[in-house]
Amino acid sequence: MMRKNKHGFLLVVIILFVFCSLNLPQPLTPMAYNSAPASGKVSKDFSADKAYEHILHLSEKIGPRPAGSPNETKAAQYLYYMLEQYGWKVREQPFSKIVGNANPLKPEHKIQVINSQNIIAELPGASPETILLGAHYDSADVSTPGAIDNASGVGVLLEIARILGQEKHQKSYQIVFFGAEENGLVGSQYFTAQSDLSAIQWMLNLDMVGTPLEIDIAGKTSAPPELVDKVVTLARQEQIPFHISRDFAVMTREGSQGGASDFSPFLDQSIPALGLGIAGRAEGYYHRPEDRIERVTLQSLDTVGKFIPKLIESVEVTGSGQKTWDSYYLPFQLGSFVVIIPTLGLRILFILTIFFTVFSVSRSFRDQEPFIQGNLKEYVLIGVGIPGAAFLASFLSGAGEALWQLLKGRVYLWQAYPGVFLTLRVILVLCALLIFLKLLRSLPQPKGGKFYWLIGVLTLTLLTIILGLYRIDLAFPFLFWLLCFNLFLYYPSIILLFIGPYFIYKTHWELLNSQQWPSFYETIHLYPVLFIVLYGLLFIPVLLGALYILEKGKRPWEQMLKRLLIPALLVGVGCVLGTGLIPNYSRANPQPITVQKVWTESEGVILRVSSTDTLPKSLLKELDSQETKIGEDKKVLELPIPSEKAPLQANVSVTDTGERLLNFKMAMKYGRDPYLVRIKLESKKPFKIQEMDDFVPIAKLPKKIALEGKERAGSYALLLERTPPHQGTIQWKIAAEGIVKCSIEVVFADQTPRYSINLPHISPDYKEVYQDVFEF
């Protein structure tokens, strides 16, 4: 009975210790937030029907709106007209920006020229202090209507513009519809870099309207905690379900975009900002042709549309322009309540935990029980056995996936039901750790167990200090784990073993329920050895803690471990076999398929069907014919189709002026406007573009981006892309030491698909492509 009480008391102490450090946000100078409505109240006569009409016009009548396309220009003209009708002062902000690839996971040297425009509307009030509202109006691709992403945000914001334009206000308002968001927040980055932000009090961005609300606060820095608290309080009062996003993984802050949407560049400029979207993992229509008007519901438009006027009424910010705030706080959501550990609280907790660790280690040395209780052989065996078991458990966690990838002939297995798949992996890891624990206990090993505790504490302390020096909020999961590991010395409890890595679990849960999950899991597939090592390192403290409990715990853990061995083995095998029962794709999360009419100089026109995963057998069977070509990996299928007129005529000429300085000229006559022109240069020896026309404006080229081949795996490559408008003639001068291979690809929308795919669990994307390859 005493033991049960002690365990319960221990759990209460841990919870109290954590939440005693939690502080509700307090105002910071020079900002002040209150709930008093600003003078000049906003009319609450929001019409979801009117917002829906705007969404219908953008997504269905205009259609896909990729950056620089004629459809994006039509959408910009529509926004300009509607804002003027609502009494706003409107102007256009065109831009052409050169973007280099900043993603370390994709090291190819890629340079993009993005052309688009922002639509800026102003509604002056009695005071120059301004609230800025934003949404991007471009869509992800030439075949993506973008009803949810983000015609929904634009439609709601246009209706808000109508409401605001009905009466005079004390404050000034500004609405910005950003272009080229899907290309990496290009429009909002250009706006914040080129505009005077001194009058802006705070910024609110709408990206994908729906409920439950995602209150997005994560960029390279985070939204002010005071602003977050106000938005959360109002959402709770309005009884709107919501989720607070946060950069639980380094990828959000350190990524090429530095955030999820167009509010992030404002945070970079020290302007208070946050975004509203749809909480949860993106469904299968995200950035796909299925993102149509049928996805939009009047109820969600009405909920969010009525929430925003109340929000801009009630949030009062003192001062305008750039501000300072606590940006490394940690928010914790408990149902509809949010509590925050400020940076100061994190630092205090960090220092206290490190001091507690020093005290615990010194106390352990003062105990009569020695650390070294065995011979060298025993320490060598356990020193090799623990890391070996950890890395092997990490490797086996993907055993089920690897087996069924082979048997099913698939690359990915998780798209349809990622939550179920992840649960099976976790169970498999637990089973593997139980089995390896039993094997480790059968080895000759040191007695006493304090050695395990000391190594675990020192490992977690080192990791916590390294992360704490880099970014204090990232250190918190390991800080909490270190605290629990310290308590092992006083209470060797199984509760502490499982609760220690709690915030590591939480990180993965947040990832699973976010738009980052697909890219995170695909990265694991690209670098499996790296992730086996990383997760193996995380399993080492778990094994050390378990071995210490087996030595020091007063419960009969040894007998329990022996009884669990066979069940763990059976459950582990069942998880491996059960992985194959999980459907790869579903109607909600179908397999993306690209269907392209491809014109090549050598083969004429062919139909190319491809996917990042193996093509389904039903599709291969339906398209099978004597002339069908199927790739060895079964990801690409090609078959001839009746000849059609190519969407362009290209003429390429190259002359050598001496010393390997090549004059490159390409004349293209377009039958209609292309979506994208992509040119890739490759050579086994270095090369550099010395002169170039406006295909990539050299005058606008950032100093850190060079028009030269980047070495990778023994060859040099440079990829150039440009959105519309496109020139009919491209002229360059290229200095090359060897033969240069030039691949040209021009992408068009396919308005009349030759072959229409109507199979379950498949999402077809139709395009037309002109390709040519030559060497000089």
TrEMBL record:
Keyword match Nucleus: no
Domain Peptidase M28 per the UniProt entry, residue ranges: 118-308
PANTHER family: METALLOPEPTIDASE M28 FAMILY MEMBER, PEPTIDASE M28 DOMAIN-CONTAINING PROTEIN
Alphabetized Pfam families for the sequence: Peptidase_M28 (PF04389)
Record's keyword annotation contains Membrane: yes
An individual GO BP term: proteolysis
InterPro entries per record: M28_fam, Peptidase_M28
GO MF, any single term: metalloexopeptidase activity
Protein name, entry field: Peptidase M28 domain-containing protein
Transmembrane segments: 337-359, 379-399, 419-439, 451-472, 478-505, 526-549, 564-582
Keyword line: Membrane, Transmembrane, Transmembrane helix
Species name: Desulfitobacterium hafniense (strain Y51)
